[in-house]
Each structure stands twice: as structure tokens, then as C-alpha cells.
Design goal:
Layout (H helix, E strand, L loop, with lengths): L2 H27 L31 E2 L4 E4 L2 E5 L3 E2 L9 E3 L10 H28 L7 H26 L4 H23 L11 H35 L13 H26 L6 H21 L6 H24 L1 H7 L1
Antiparallel strand pairs: 1-4, 2-3, 3-5
Helix pairs in contact: 1-2, 1-4, 1-8, 2-3, 3-4, 4-5, 4-8, 5-6, 5-8, 6-7, 7-8
């Protein structure tokens, strides 16, 4: 397999994970509506750094699509024009996707950086797909899955737009996160196809355990996003400084999420011991146990120590990394037989 292609696939995976990290920071800082439109930000390719840019001013030139805030709403310039001494309503059209009209320079630039990373990751996936055409004769699955990643990134971009238009609807945020994991899985499959097959066939028990652990991880991620949505609502009620009240009266989903973490740890621990007894060399399982330990630690920190700084995004990022490692291990054990038979 072409070494440059392998390096490009791994680089693309890193960029996708950076987008996940940026998305976690966006959620931690409440910057999801920092750019109220999409794909531009207040109608600009480079967003404003002060609120004056978003206010109507006489004798100022506006370009088509640029946005101003007026009367607690957003107005969009119909065309390129220069303002007169008096405001001309006919030169503007109301922004109708939603009624959110606030500006916070930090929120705006945090969200903007998130979008820039998304665009960079999208460009990398497109380059990867075109590069994969050269490998069509060698491994058609690599080419097919490379283009599936492009489709996935396009769908993810559309989901990102709907998240903004819905003013951060919880269900759409969850779908946005799950789609990111789908893209990670597709890239891991491509990378898996580029490495030599092991000569040892795993038992059905090990394959089943791996499948069970990754299903539990996905359930935990879904429950975790719903718990986070509850916390977001509590922040609106009690404010940013009253962290001790955010989980004062949690929903039943929180208790399920917390209890399932014990089940996840026990099952992965059993799998870890099973692999050691069978002398099956999967060193990545050590990373799974490390990620699980850190994941549980950050969860405990949030509940008992009132959400220490960066504990929320770290909890989310660790979960996505854990999923990636588990999925790759699942590929190694579940597809190994097929690859060996094809050699």
C-alpha cells in the first residue's frame, strides 16, 4: 500500500479528532451560536472582532449577505450598497432561520475556529478520496470507503448547519456527534485495510466481547450527550457560576449513565484478562483500559468536584478516542479471518 496514502489517511483521522476536540470546547464555552448563520459568520468569511461591525452606520459600504443586528433581530444586506444618512429598510431582509441575535467576540471566534478545522478536515478527506483512485486495482474497498468519508463529511456539514438553524436543538447535537464517530470509523477501516493481516485467528468469544464493549460505549456516549443537554438547561436556570447546582436533581438518564460505567469497566476488564490468558497480543487494549480510567476519573470529578475546568470537553474527547481504539480492535479481531482467507 502506498506510504503517502497511509500517512494521509492517518493525518485526516487526526484532523477529524481535532474537530471533535474543537466541538467539545465550543460546548464547554457555550459558543455554539457564536456564528448565527452558516457557512459564513454574520455574513463574513472572517468574522468581526467588535460589535460595531454588526451595527448600522451611515456612509458605510455593505456587501451582499453581510449581517447587522437591529431591534433584537438580524438583518441581511440584499446587495452591495453604501448607506445614506438615514436607515433604508428596503435594502435589508430579515434573517428568518431563527431569532437569535447576540454577539460575543470570544464565542464567535471559538465557533469560527471550529468551522475552520472542519473545513480543513473536509479538504483532507477530499484529497484522500482522489488519492485513493490510484489504489482501485489494488484494493477497491479503500477507494469506496474513502469516497464514503467524503459523503459523510458533506452530511456532517449539513448537520452542522441544521444545529445552528435550530439554535442548538439537543437531538441534532447528538446526531452531529454520532456522525463524527461514523466518520472516525470509516477512516479507521481505511487505515485497517493498509496494514498486514495477523497470522493468528481470534476465538468467537473474543470477537463477541469486543462487539459487546463497543455497543456499550456507544450507548454511554448517547446517554452522555443527553446528560450534557440536561446540564446545559441547568446552566440556563442557575447560571455559569453555580456549578454545584447543575447536577442537584439529575434525571434518571444520569443515574443509568453513571451505573453503566461500572458495567463497561467490568466487561472491558474481563476482556483484558481474557486476552492476557490467551496470550493474544493486542497492545491497544492497554490504551482502552487507560482511556476508561481517565473517562471515569473525569466523570467523578464533574459530579463530586463541581465540574473542574475542562473536565466536560475532556470527558467527551476521551469517549471518542475510546470508541476509536475499540472500533479498530474490533476490526482486527472480527475481520482477521476474512483477510487471512483472502491471502
Amino acid at each position: 500500500m502506498n506510504k503517502k496514502f497511509i500517512a494521509l489517511a492517518k493525518t485526516t483521522l487526526v484532523l477529524v479528532y481535532l474537530v471533535i476536540v474543537a466541538g467539545a470546547v465550543v460546548r464547554m464555552t457555550g459558543s455554539g451560536m457564536g456564528c448565527p448563520d452558516w457557512p459564513k459568520c454574520f455574513g463574513y468569511y472572517i468574522p468581526p472582532t467588535n460589535v460595531e461591525t454588526l451595527q448600522w452606520q451611515p456612509n458605510r459600504t455593505f456587501e451582499k449577505g453581510q449581517v447587522i443586528m437591529m431591534n433584537e433581530g438580524l438583518l441581511v444586506a440584499k446587495s452591495d450598497f453604501t448607506t445614506n444618512d438615514a436607515f433604508e429598510p428596503t435594502a435589508w431582509v430579515a434573517y428568518t432561520k431563527h431569532d437569535y441575535a447576540k454577539f460575543n467576540v470570544w464565542h464567535t471566534w471559538i465557533e469560527y475556529i471550529n468551522r475552520l478545522l472542519g473545513a480543513l478536515a473536509g479538504l483532507a478527506t477530499l484529497v484522500l478520496a482522489f488519492f485513493s483512485l490510484r489504489l482501485w486495482q489494488q484494493n477497491r474497498l479503500v477507494t469506496i470507503f474513502s469516497w464514503l468519508v467524503v459523503v459523510g463529511m458533506a452530511f456532517q456539514a449539513w448537520l452542522g448547519a441544521t444545529v445552528v438553524y435550530s439554535v442548538l436543538a439537543p437531538v441534532r447535537i447528538t446526531l452531529h456527534m454520532l456522525m463524527a464517530l461514523v466518520i472516525v470509523a470509516l477512516l479507521l477501516y481505511i487505515i485497517f485495510q493498509t496494514v498486514p493481516a495477523s497470522t493468528r485467528k481470534p476465538s468467537k468469544t473474543i470477537v463477541g466481547l469486543f462487539m459487546a464493549t463497543i455497543v456499550l460505549t456507544l450507548i454511554q456516549i448517547i446517554l452522555g450527550t443527553q446528560v450534557r443537554q440536561f446540564v446545559d438547561e441547568q446552566i440556563k436556570v442557575y447560571g455559569e457560576t453555580s456549578k454545584e447546582l447543575w447536577l442537584l436533581n439529575p434525571t434518571v438518564k444520569f443515574y443509568i449513565h453513571r451505573s453503566m460505567s461500572i458495567v463497561v469497566l467490568i466487561l472491558n476488564g474481563y476482556l483484558f484478562l481474557t486476552l492476557r490468558k490467551s496470550k493474544y497480543e493486542l497492545t491497544k487494549m492497554n490504551w482502552v483500559m487507560l482511556m476508561l480510567g481517565l473517562e471515569i476519573f473525569t466523570g467523578i470529578a464533574m459530579y463530586y468536584f463541581d465540574f473542574p475546568f475542562a473536565s466536560q470537553p475532556l470527558h467527551l474527547v476521551l469517549a471518542s478516542i475510546l470508541f476509536g481504539i475499540q472500533f479498530y480492535l474490533l476490526l482486527e479481531v472480527s475481520l482477521q479471518n476474512k483477510r487471512l482467507n483472502s491471502l
